[in-house]
C-alpha cells in the first residue's frame, strides 16, 4: 500500500535532487580555482599547459555527472509518486553524487604531482571513482525496478516497457570492467575508458528510438 503523497511533496524530492547535483557539479571546478593564487607569476596559458590533466579531468567529470543527472531526470519523468524505498534509493544516489567532486579532485591531484614522487599516477582514486559510478548506475536501475513492481508509482502514460534499465546495467558492468583494468594494470590512462560511456549512450539512444521508448 502506497501512502498518499502530495504533488508538492514529490516536486520537493525532485527539486532537492536537482539542487544537490547542481552543487556537486559546481564543486568540480574548485581544484581549478586552487591552481591560482595571489602570488601567481605564471600566465594563464602556462597554468593551463602545466596543469592540463586537471582541466581534462574536470571536463570528463563534468560530462559524466551531467550525463548521470540527465538519466536521473529521465527516470523521474516516468514517476508520478514515491514511497519509502524510492526515497531511500534516491538519497543513497545523492550521497554518491556528493562524493564525486572529492574523488575527481583526488584523481586530478595525483596526476599533477611530480612524476618522480612515489604516489604519482596512483590508480586508487580512479578505481574508487569508477566504483562509485557503478553503484550509482545500480541504484538507478533499482529505482526503475521499484517502479516496475509498483505501478501506482508511475506517472500517467508510463508503460512497463518504458522502464528499461539495460543501459544502466551496461554502464555498471562497463565501469566495473574499467575499474578492474585500472587496478590490475596500474595505469591511469585507463581513465580515458570513460569515453566509452559516450559510445554506450549513443548505442542505447538508437535502441530506444528503434523500440519507441524513452532514452534513459
Largest sheet: none
Unreliable stretches (pLDDT < 50, length at least 5) are none
- Large-scale geometry: globular
Number of strands: 0
Query: What is the terminal separation in angstroms?
Result: 27 Å
Helix-strand pattern:
HHHHHHHH
Radius of gyration: 19 Å
Fraction in helix? 55-70%
> Helix segment count?
8
Strand content: under 5%
Overall mean pLDDT stands at: 88
Total discrete domains: 1
Q: Provide the structure class.
A: mainly alpha
Q: Summarize this, please?
A:
With 216 residues, this protein is mainly alpha-helical. It is built from eight helices and no strands.
Tell me about this structure:
The chain has 8 helices and no strands. Helix content is 69%, strand content 0%. By secondary structure, it is an all-alpha fold. The model has no long low-confidence stretch (mean pLDDT 88).
Per-chain topology:
Elements: H1 7-27, H2 30-33, H3 44-50, H4 52-77, H5 84-111, H6 124-149, H7 166-185, H8 196-211
Helix pairs in contact: 1-4, 1-5, 4-5, 5-6, 6-7, 7-8
Question: Which terms summarize this structure?
Answer:
216 residues; mainly alpha; 69% helix
